[in-house]
Amino acid sequence: MCGIVGLFLKDSRLEPQLGQLLSDMLITMTDRGPDSAGLAIYGSATEGKAKVTIQSAKPEIDFADLERDLAEAGLPARVAVKSTHAVVAVAAARLADVRAVLAAIRPDVRIMGAGDSVEIYKEVGLPKDVVARFDVRSMSGSHGIGHTRMATESAVTTLGAHPFSTGSDQCLVHNGSLSNHNNLRRELIREGISFETQNDTEVAAAYLTAEMAKGKDLGQALTGALDDLDGFFTFVVGTKSGFGVVRDPIACKPAVMAETDRYVAFGSEYRALVNLPDIESARIWEPEPATVYFWDHQKAA
Amino acid sequence: MPVIDLATTPLRELNRSLHNIQQGSNDLSYEVANPRGSHAVAVGIDGPVVVDVNGSVGYYCAGMNDGGTVTVHGSAGPGVAENMMSGKVVVEGDASQYAGATGRGGLLVIKGNAASRCGISMKGIDIVVHGNIGHMSAFMGQSGHLVVLGDAGDALGDSLYEAKLFIRGTVKSLGADCIEKEMRPEHLQKLAELLEKADVKNVRPEEFKRYGSARKLYNFNIDNADAY
């Protein structure tokens, strides 16, 4: 099953409530997948700064003195620890160096996502516990996506949880199961992409990353996914300025959308949307199969 | 009239009370408040009870209905009126995928649009959709009628048996073994009857086209032996 949610705010006055609204949406979807949960929150970007969300199985060891050790390695950074995750803020020009420095000084740390505004948090456990662990309710932002997992294709681990990063400020959540992920993974490995898990969604994320590296934009990459990915999927992707939705042509994984003057919301089920403001007067519809949808702050402005 | 508020009453209590109506009872009308997308609202009704659901529901509303009249004053999630035996289910808004799936009898009326797989494997149910229907609708439909005032999506009536499909708008594509068929007087008469039952006004049966099975998949065709 799996449950996915997404919320894109048009009205900036709702931004302080993003974490709160998205948390409630995700918790409502708990019985679609109680194995693990995760969220990507797009907060406000700071001019000239970039951030990297990292995760560790031993946060008390890996995150201790991390700021000092990064500085000693020649990478001045601010480190904000949240449970098993930490957000490392660096000068935007140094973003590309973070991965290499961390690999040298903290080899066991995993990078969850990076960019100007995205923070990605995911863990094994129920949505309510994951939300509490990372204090998601207190987070503000312009948009975010969330996922609660019922594992079918790979083990229940932190790294098997969603969202998966697909590039700078981009991530993906998935409801469904891909049937050609082993083949596709082998092809992507041959192209030089490395994988952390046996998870099918990680392959979809890597596929999108690889297609965009060849020059496609996200919309074109998602359209390509309709041809190249075999299996069931409803994807919600987050980007720096918006979010997108695409369902496979058979479209048996559920999806409901709601739009008002103040927001666009996605839920695996209508239940996820019922606590949103003015939902009674929202336009509610089911996204069409094999159709790429996008909402974008930059295009709207 | 009992009003059951799902914000304060567990779903099972609602369904239990709908199942335990004694013969001769006068309390045959129920109102359900705050469904808020709940699953399995008013499933398994087996008597002439009338249920008005004030809001939108999730999966499988009014599933297995046998004799009840259920009206959803909102939209319905996947599988509304799944496997209905008899009675009537009305959705004032839209219905998600596989509305009326496997239904054996009764009437399902959807006043908005229905998504994919509407009437999949229908076995005697009558379905009237005021709006459009999605892809793969009436897949393997065995009997009953699917009436659509709007358009049908891809692969209508794929692998159809003897369900009769009446579409007023366009059909994006027909599924395997589904063809347009002649509209004979008995079909026009049946269609008029269904439109009236479904509260459809100002629409004439002559505006529809009929689709049914070409019956070419009923028997093995020896010319296809090479494919096996």
Q: In terms of topology, how is this protein built?
A:
The complex is a heterodimer of chains A (301) and B (228).
Chain A: E1 3-9, H1 18-28, E2 36-42, E3 49-55, H2 59-62, H3 66-72, E4 78-82, E5 85-91, H4 95-105, E6 110-115, E7 118-124, H5 127-133, E8 143-149, E9 164-167, E10 170-178, H6 181-190, H7 200-213, H8 218-228, E11 231-239, E12 242-247, E13 256-259, E14 263-267, E15 283-285, E16 293-296, H9 297-300
Antiparallel strand pairs in A: 1-8, 1-14, 2-7, 2-8, 3-5, 3-6, 4-5, 9-10, 10-11, 11-12, 12-16, 13-14, 13-15
Helix pairs in contact in A: 6-7, 7-8
Chain B: E1 3-5, H1 11-19, E2 29-33, E3 50-54, E4 66-72, E5 86-91, E6 107-110, E7 123-129, E8 143-148, E9 164-167, E10 178-181, H2 185-197, E11 209-213
Parallel strand pairs in B: 1-2, 2-3, 3-4, 4-5, 5-6, 6-7, 7-8, 8-9
Antiparallel strand pairs in B: 9-11, 10-11
List the keywords.
heterodimer, A: 301 residues, alpha+beta, Glutamine Phosphoribosylpyrophosphate, subunit 1, domain 1, Alpha-Beta Plaits, 2 domains, 5-stranded antiparallel sheet, 9 helices, globular, B: mainly beta, 11-stranded mixed sheet, 2 helices
